Each structure stands twice: as structure tokens, then as C-alpha cells.
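Example 3.2
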Amino acid sequence: MSDESIANRIEKLVAEEHELRHREEADSHDADRLEADEERLQNVEVELDRCWDLLRQRRALRDAGSNPDTAHVRDAGTVERYLQ
């Protein structure tokens, strides 16, 4: 996966995140739809974190003179435990 494809995935996820946040207001009267939106939003946020982590790994490897293609997608549990 190239940096460009990761960046494109991030852009798509950010657009979906914005749409979901916007829809939350409209769905506030429908508990089932609101719950579904909130669940999807959590999944999108985790996927965004994983994509950013992969992109950072690739950049760090490249900066260190290593092959960025050796970077790998880390599991959600690992990425979500990072201190921010």
C-alpha cells in the first residue's frame, strides 16, 4: 500500500466521519439510526487511527533509510492504546 493510497483512504474516512457527525443531529429523534451512526462513527475513528499509524510508520522507515513497504497495519487494540 502506497502513501498515496493511504492518504486517499484517510480522506474518504474523514469525509464519512463528517457526514456521520452531521447526520447525528438529524437522527437524534430516531434511536436506532442514531445508535447505528454512533457505532459506525467509532469504527471510522479507529480505522482513521490505524491509517494514520501506518502512514507514520512508512514515513519513519523512509526517514531512517529503510523500506517503507515493511510497515504493517497494527491491530486496533494496539493503536487505540497509544498516548496522544
